[in-house]
Design goal:
It contains 7 helices and 9 strands. The chain is an alpha/beta fold. It has a single domain (about 35-55, about 75-220), classed as Rossmann fold.
């Protein structure tokens, strides 16, 4: 049977409003369902923008983007938000934890938005696997940067998304914690078959991926 394509970008061009040059141009990418891919590159080359394009949070000036069989850029705002809630887990570089919710409430938010019932044990189990046992009732302001990042990862994984996007997944974690997070990510990907795309400057993160790319000169180039 042919392999299902989960992410398809073809000849994508993106430029910031008023910019003289495009940030991305002629960019193409194809990921199979269940593939774990990493994009390497320094700050400022457009790695975060690439994730936002895949998620439908940014719109291309031209080119085609099809994700999980949907042309997300063609959806209106409400439909795109619904598509993201159902299909996507996103670990943002700035975490975006809601300050008025506890850690457990932040993690369970995707389940609540999808109208799914859950148990405290379900949330506690994932928090424990990420080294956050005993922190469920804390608020984001009470967390360290590394704890907040792990909470953001838990929130992205709790609903077993079909597509996981991660921006500098281990940027605030020490080496030992980063390894355990990467182990969990690989485990969840294997369990759920989620397609995973991470952007990073860290070779140790990229080493876990099935396929690797480098973003340079507006485009993606495969890496060995």
């Amino acid at each position: 049977m042919p392999t299902e394509t989960a992410v398809h970008l073809e000849d994508v061009r993106y430029a910031y409003p008023g910019a003289e040059r495009p940030l991305l141009e002629g960019l193409s990418l194809e990921l199979a369902a269940g593939e774990f891919a990493a994009v390497l590159g320094p700050s400022g080359v457009g790695k975060s923008t690439l994730l936002n394009l895949v998620a439908g949070l940014a719109l291309p000036a031209s080119g085609r983007i099809e994700v999980l069989g949907t042309e997300v850029a063609a959806l209106d705002e409400a439909a795109a938000a619904e598509w993201r809630r159902r299909n996507l887990g996103f670990v943002f570089q700035q975490f975006h934890l809601l300050p008025h919710l506890t850690l457990a409430e932040n993690v369970a938010l995707p389940l609540a938005l999808n109208g799914r019932r859950w148990t405290d044990e379900e949330v506690a189990d994932l928090l424990g696997r990420l080294g956050l046992a005993g922190h469920a009732d804390r608020y984001p302001r009470q967390l360290s940067g590394g704890q907040a990042q792990r909470a953001a990862i838990a929130r992205a994984l709790i609903h077993r998304p079909r597509l996981l996007l991660a921006d500098e997944l281990t940027g605030n974690l020490d080496e030992e914690t980063a390894e355990s997070v990467l182990d969990l990510l690989a485990e969840v990907v294997a369990e759920s078959g989620a397609t995973t795309l991470v952007v990073t400057h860290a070779p140790e993160v990229a080493a876990r991926a099935h396929t690797r790319y480098r973003l340079a000169h507006h485009r993606l180039q495969p890496e060995a």
